[in-house]
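Late entry, evening session. Most of the bench is empty. Finally got around to the prediction I had been postponing all week. Sequence below, unchanged from the version circulated by S.P.
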Amino acid sequence: MKIIKGSITAPQGFLAQGVEAAIKKEDKKDLTIIYSNHKCAAAGVFTTNKVRAACIDINRSHLEDGRAQAIVANSGNANACTGQQGWKDTLSMARLTAEYLNISPDDVLVASTGVIGHAMPMRRVEKGIRDAAANLSEHGGENAARAIMTTDLVSKEIAVEIEIGGRPVRIGAIAKGSGMIHPNMATMLCFITTDADISSPCLEEMLRYSCDRSFNMISVDRDTSTNDMVLLLANGLAGNRQIKNCQGEDYQVFREALDFVSISLAKMVTRDGEGATRLVEVEVINAENYDAARTIARSITSSNLTKAAIFGEDANWGRILAAAGYSGADFDPQQVDIYLGSEKMAENGMGLIFNEDLARQELQKDPVVIKVDMKSGPFKATAWGCDLSYEYVRINAAYRT
């Protein structure tokens, strides 16, 4: 596998564009279209929040046949908690996109992100859809990535190339996310394209697997959005033999590449957490089972006290062990060792005398690496988070204004 230039349009047959539709208050790009010139196998993973935007349920309906051809997404307005009008506006976004692209509305997936509870400015949205559809380009990936940003400081893009059956196959992706990040999928969005030929059942299975090990292993602020989704389109133009055996070698090769793309973007989202100064990586090793390792790792990255200690460069290992303890996972606290980078902070659930200066140096690194050794089995899991700074409060105290 190799990382290549480009992002969402790196795979064959995909075009994209991001434009200014004046949905945001700022004069910034805020509407994106991603389009394949061939109909795709498609899969999606969505937020488990009971309060959800209309686009979540409409996309589930559009994906019942496992097919799609375009994605339309806006930033600046989540179109969530907007009642029947929000539902109608989401369907209108799909219909308008389909008209300008000459495809079926059922083959259009819709995503929105931004402020909850505001009606969509549909006249501006329609103009944005028209402009984006008229300017679709193989070079439109960067604009597309920027147009889905809200409080993000940087755009998030990646593309890779692998070989399947002697054929080069590409995967490209963009994502947005900075705050309200604690996905349970299944304001985080990720769109992935590939020119691989993959059956819809295999596509859905590998997307769920990949999300569980990437986007569902990150946290910025413990808030699960009303609009979280990951969408994956595969148009088959690479000409590889179709991946339809979910246990086969080709499936494994593609899934490893998809995992790399998903984890890379998940880390970009977390590193760009609102007000964050450092990425935090928590590895739980030697756990009794995978679920326990996963649960403990997520609990530690979600701990506000741990996040604040990292921001303050305070080697407070007790907060790490406490977060493991309330995670809900079953383990013996008297067997746990904790490391901060190369510094061992605790052994068998008790603190050690350690070098404070060296520990502070570990806390100044990016990423800050925490390792928790459960000493009870062969399983491990890794989760990612960020520190919690004063800036996070400032950003979210005035988000609507």
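Two things to note before I forget:
The mean pLDDT is 93.
The CA atoms of residues 67 and 210 lie 20 Å apart.
Will write this up properly tomorrow.
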